[in-house]
Protein 1
Amino acid sequence: MADSIETLRLKLKDKKLTASEKQAVRKKLVELIKKKSLVRLSNGDPIEYHIIYDTFQQGLEPVYFWVLDFMRNKKPSGMGLEVDKVEEEFEASVGGGYFGEMSQKASIMQDRAIQILGHVNTIVRSILNLIYNLREMEMRLEIYDDADPKKQKDYSKVQAAEYSLKSVWMDQVDIKTGIGSINNLARGDLQFVTLRDAFFQVNKLKDINKFDLNKRVKIILKKKFAEYLKWRVIGESELRKRYSIELNYLQSQVDSLRLYTKWAKPYLRAANKLGMTEFKTKSGLPSPDMVSAFSSMKMELTLMAKKKIDPKGVHPTYQKFRFDNENYACLEVNFLFRTMPQPVRMESGQQYVNFGVIDIFFRAYAMTKEDITDIEKHEVFQDMGLVENLTEVSLKNLQEDIDHFLDSGKDTEQEIKVKQSGIFESLGSGFGDLGKAFGSGTKALFGLEVKSAGKYREKEVMKATQSAAAGNCILLYDIFKKAHRMITW
């Protein structure tokens, strides 16, 4: 089953798609939208005009800017349309000077982007280490919280947390005393087998005297338990300070990462735009217009102009109705350049002027606002696929962990605000519901409620949109020929 416009739009909402997969879906979506929206004559033929402009006496740039200015300028010197560039691709022959010039500029942009991305990778590694450390500290702090009877009401959890802290102290602090550690004393030749169990059972220093132990064991137990209590207080305080410091450092590293990726994007986009596209024939072979030994260049450039159609302009009574779609009369101008770039010396340096042939295609489309948005997104994201993958994939993969730590303190503040404003919000919402009920009743009573336009009126506005698009296409084609001294009739 072939994909429809709606199914492709649903596909784009899938968060699992990569940037390249989304770009492929957008490309197919744009093709279907243009096929559906192309204005046709009564016999089914599309409204399309084709002009070949051939000149080796002057540059071709004025032709492009004449079309752009005429579509964009307000009447009477133009058509008053809103114009966007939706496609731009070029290829230069490898034997020409233009290829070397563009490749050199692209290399400079690539080198600068790579330098910045090197800093990005360093920061990402730093963030990974910080997240690992913060996770360990968070687990330890949870044990401290559970061991506090004021925070944890379940005695079994308090006792389990206390055992965990004692194990940490024995394995990481007391073990450094060597043969004098609790573990070594309990299993060594000294045979203090009861020392370890007694250490886990004691909760207060004064309770040690009540234990049924010999004097030597009690002396060692008091010494070890006093050291443990001191370590626990100081250790928790220092751990919380370190946790707070590393959280702040994580925030600064994330801000630095975003800053560096922001700096890298312009260079990556510039390098991507300066990169050339290999034009191919329908059979997949290289374009015959490009010959390696020649100094030639091929470029495809597309402008999309639009103008919103007001329903009340179709019929005065239509202003009383609500239309589901906003319709636009669109005009596409597609330029196919085949040129010979010639270097020209100027005060600012060497520039290239293009001499050759332009194929200009004028096409009329009738589109909805959603159709135009999809076409504009295709151009916006076309050059951003590689950029997003290089600069944002690292941040996206780490985003869940980053949000966990950096947003940990925001939930409590939000709860406090909700509690403080809850009464007023309830009061306001009560009046709001009353106002809504009163408003809807008033509209129904006085007949002010806007009715849906219905299929017939929607169809009539679309017909007017198609007619306006066809008229704009014919007008631009006719005026272009007259302005450039071509035969018209």
Protein 2
Amino acid sequence: MKKIATLTLMFLMLGLPACNTVSGMGKDIKKGGEAIEKAANK
């Protein structure tokens, strides 16, 4: 039982920063798209 709890905790510790990384990448892509859209509308 301790192994399962330890593995779950390790997975969460590694998984949560990955979510933030993906979220940040999504924001960067969105900003890039907005810049392209703004340039196209000029």
Protein 3
Amino acid sequence: MTDPRILVCDDDTDLREMICEYLGERGFKAETCEDGRSLLEAVKVDPPALAVLDVRMPGMDGIAVLKELRSRYAFPVIMLTAAAETVDRIVGLELGADDYIGKPVDLRELEARIKTVLRRMQANPVAEHYQSTLEGHCAIGPHTLDLSGARLIAEGGEDIPMTAMEFSLLKVLSDNRGRVVTRERLLDEAHERGWDPFDRSIDLRVSRLRKKIERNPAKPEIIKTVRGLGYMLI
């Protein structure tokens, strides 16, 4: 198997070099990007398996870079945030970040999170295993979820940009259409990160999904909230 290519974007030269050296010693092909613009240029040439992206950078910050990435690409992104940057973490999750890790960075924790996110990608129907075992499509309101291609197709025929995590959420909900899926189960089956009762990342991601698929996200008709329990796909 080819070593996964990881792009590390941080304006702190010492930190990004340290992360790249550490990941390189552990079987990853890690490359550095000094700022958001250079990351976007590198992605245009060759999209990576995963990007590690700092939130606070001069010029184009990590949130702006993430927003640009999510308009075109679905590869996973792990955000680097300061411990106190709760708002940045929430915004990042809403925009489609797959995970986050606080600074100062624990390299072993970062490695573990990268491996977890990449495993989730491999378990996604984009991977050959699912392409050979899943067939067909399912309706998501007026849209179509292409199970074999891991695509969400709007009623007009155009693709709706979607992250691997968002696909996983829709897949779990569609497998249980008409039944309530608890937040705990969504975290277990779609997130694969471990959870606690106060984890709100699923709520943020469902909110982001609704903005993409609902005619009126404030009054959802496709993904219903069942208060105190979870969510249900109609």
